[in-house]
Amino acid sequence: MPDVPIPLDLQDNDRDRRGLPIPFVVYRDVKGAPHFSVNDTSVVDEVLEKKLCGLCGKPLKTGQIWLVGGPGSSFMEDGMYIDPFMHEDCGR
User: Fold this and answer.
1) Which residues contact 5 (CB under 8 A, 6 or more apart)?
2) Does residue 3 form part of some domain?
3) How far is CA 1 from CA 10, 26, 48, 67, in A?
4) Which residues does 81 contact at the CB level (< 8 Å), separation at least 6?
5) Residue 43, H or E segment
6) pLDDT value at residue 51
7) Is residue 15 part of a domain?
8) Model confidence pLDDT, tens digit, residues 5-63
9) Is the pLDDT score of 1 beyond 60?
10) Structural domain total, the chain
């Protein structure tokens, strides 16, 4: 088990070989192996449509929507976030 505390909403996610939760939107190949550098666009579409956390896949409520990114994500004219919104606890 990792030394990193896992938030309650992420407890049910599948785990990687290190014991860390696999984010809900991570692409998995035909063998089910996660590819952490790629988001599954069909799952991202579902997350955006249903207002789900991109990490745990559970519903978000107004005021619970957090985005994680560097300073260029929101303050630059062409800035953007790569990952969809999430719960604060999941993002930390």
Assistant:
1) none
2) no
3) 14, 21, 31, 27
4) 67, 68, 69, 73, 74
5) helix 41-50
6) 95
7) yes
8) 899 999 999 999 888 999 999 999 999 999 999 999 999 999 999 999 999 999 999 88
9) no
10) 1
Enclosing domain of residue 60: 8-91
* Cβ count within 10 A of residue 16: 14
Which amino acid makes up residue 81?
Answer: Y
Instruction: Please check whether residue 36 lies inside any domain of the structure.
Output: yes
pLDDT of residue 79: 80
Burial class (CB in 10 A: 0-12, 13-18, 19+), 7: middle
Given a cut of 80, is residue 92 above it in pLDDT? yes
E strand residue ranges, 18-74: 26-28, 34-39
Backbone angles phi, psi at 19, to 5 degrees: 95, 5
CA-to-CA distance for 13 and 52, rounded, in angstroms? Answer: 14
